[in-house]
Amino acid sequence: MANTEIPIEAFIADMPKAELHVHLEACPTAPVLTKIAERNNLPVPADIYVLDPTDTSPPPFHDFVSFQAIFKSHLALLQTEVDFQDIALDYLTKASAENIKHVELFFGPQYHTSRGVPFPTVVGGFISAIQFAHRTLGISASLVMCIDREESVAFGMATLASAIPYRTTSSAKFASVFQRAHREGFRITCHCDVDYPFTVDHVREALTELPVDRIDHGANANESEEVINLLLAKNIGMTGCPMSNAVSSPDLKIPELLSLLRRGVKVTINCDAPGYFHAYLNKTLVTVTSNVNVTRKDLIQFQRNAFNISWISARRRDQFLQMLDEYEEKALGSAPL
C-alpha cells in the first residue's frame, strides 16, 4: 500500500538522490566564507549577508550580470588549497545529510588561474574534500570543469590542457575545445541558460554541433518541437535548476521542466548555487512541488533520470536505481501519486 500520509518534505528527504548541477564556488555559506577571509587576512565583504539564509534583506543582485559581479568578488577570497577543500567539504556534508548518494560538481578554474591561483591548488583542494567525504560519509562525487565562454578559445584550450593529467555566448565557437575534450575522454555538458536571446538556438547548436552528453539549464527547449525531438532522439539528459532561473527569468520554469519530463526528456532538478539562493536540493524539490501538477511519481522520475544520466559506472548506477525502486515501492506502492 502507498503511504500517502507522509508529508512531502519527509518524502523528499528520505528519497535517495543524485545531484548533477551544482557550482562549488557558489556553495559557501556566510560562516565558511568569513572563516576563509579571516584566515587569509582579507576583509570580510560587506555583502556577505547575501550568503546568510536568515537575512531578510533584498538580495543585492537583480539579474545575471549583477549576480556574477558579486559572485566573482567573493571568489577573490579563495587562495589556498585548504580554502577550496573547505567549501567543497561543507557542501558535501550538507548533501550527504540530505540523502544525496552521488554528486557531479562544477568548478571554474579560469576564475582562479586568471588571478594567479595555480590549477593544482584548486583541483587539489576539491579532490581532497571529495576523497574525505567518500571515506567518512559514503557520498561519491566527481568534478565537472567549466570552460568560460566569455574568455578566449586559447584560454579554454590551455585550461583543458591543465585538466588532462587529472583525468582517472554561443557555444559553437568553442567546438574545437569540446572536440579535443571529447577525444581526451572527458564527458561533455553545455550550459544553455534560460530566457537569453537565441537560447533555443543555443540548445539546438549544442545538440547538433558539439559532442555533448548533457545540456545544463535549457528549459527553453520546451518551446521547440524540433529541439525536444533532438533531445529524445539523441537520448540527451538535461539538468534543470529552478531556483537560479529566477535570476534571468520572471519565473522558475517549473511547468516547462515538468512538460519536458512528461515528454520523456531525461530532465533532472538541481540546486545550482545553494549559497546564493539559500536552497539545497531538498528545499529545491519542495519548491518544485509548489506547482500543483507535480506528483510524487514525478519526483521519483526526476531522480531516476539523475541516476541514469550521471557519469558513473553501470554497476553503481544499477545499485542506486535499485535503492530508488525500493524506496518508490515502500513509499508509493502502485499508487498513481
TrEMBL record:
Cofactor section: Zn(2+)
Pfam families: A_deaminase
Sorted UniProt keywords: Hydrolase, Metal-binding
Adenosine deaminase domain residues: 16-326
A single GO molecular function term of this UniProt record: metal ion binding
InterPro entries in the record: A_deaminase_dom, Ado/ade_deaminase, Metal_Hydrolase
GO biological process: adenine catabolic process; hypoxanthine salvage
GO cellular component terms, semicolon-separated: cytosol
PANTHER family linked: ADENINE DEAMINASE, ADENOSINE DEAMINASE DOMAIN-CONTAINING PROTEIN
This protein's name: Adenosine deaminase
